[in-house]
């Protein structure tokens, strides 16, 4: 774990280190087992395309969790994440090619509160497309 981010070291505009996470079909199977979400759009190309998707897609909550992981890694303490919300913009398409997809998370401190909290604005992309919209996290700084 990294050192806990101190309020004195953060200013509006502070950028979080960019994080890129691979997502493979095997990850989708593991996530389905952990979450209980066995919807076939997350593992069956035929079903995914029949419902109008470009192929098998990652679980939205998995994508959301990867973005939160980037924030908590920066904060140095998962308990520092006090509020988090996103809107799902586009699905993360996960090809069955042994490589899968990549989810890239960028963040920037958008506001600082007098209570020692920072609002982190996130940009989350996959394949060059923004997959989460209005992604924001509130972090309690040390």
UniProtKB/TrEMBL annotation:
GO terms for cellular component: fatty acid synthase complex. It comes from the Bacteria. GO terms for biological process: fatty acid biosynthetic process. Residues 17-120 form the MaoC-like domain. InterPro entries: Fatty_acid_synthase, HotDog_dom_sf, MaoC-like_dom. One of its GO terms (molecular function) is fatty acid synthase activity. Belongs to the enoyl-CoA hydratase/isomerase family. This is MaoC domain protein dehydratase.
